[in-house]
Amino acid sequence: MTTPTTTSQVRRSVRFRRNAAPGIHRIQHAHVNCYLVEEAGQFTLVDAALPATWPFVHQALSALGASPQDVTALVLTHAHPDHLGFARLASDTWKVPIWAHPDERPLARHPYRYAHERSRLISPIAHPASIPVLATLIEAGALRVRPVTTLHLFSPGETLDVPGRPTVLHTPGHTAGHCALYFAGRDTVISGDALVTFDPHTGKEGPQIISGAATANTGRALLSLGILASTDAGIMLPGHGHAWRDGIGHAAALARQASGL
Question: Which sign, positive or negative, has the C-alpha torsion 142, 65, 38, 91?
Answer without folding.
Answer: positive
